[in-house]
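Q: F-box/LRR-repeat protein 2, please. Structure only.
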Amino acid sequence: MYSLDLSECQLTQEEVGLVWRLCPRLKRVDIGVRRGTRDSLSTTALAQLLSHLPSLLSLNLQSCSLLDDATLLPLSSSSPYLTSLTLSGCSLVSDPSLLAIASRLSYLQALGLAYTQVSM
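A: Structure for F-box/LRR-repeat protein 2:
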């Protein structure tokens, strides 16, 4: 499996662990939160998922309200081949994340930052 849409799912940390163990070659993951859906993904579970998917090309984390700079910074090292990253609506994401993304994700072609704390 190369693409997985979990945007309407309420994931536990154990379920996130199953994703990376059963699908280690994922290229595209959508964990974005849609209107009417509660964000249940913990920062620990998200960090665990991202650290085990080094081949990831596209990641949608739209409106993941718990996502912050501390969780996002390791992404820039663990998923170096990302070409598309959506962080729109992640209200805790700010300038340190943007700096890490800009300096480490050299293949990035699309970056969504609407409704974040990025000021640059």
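A: Brief note, in case it's useful. The CA atoms of residues 4 and 29 lie 5 Å apart.
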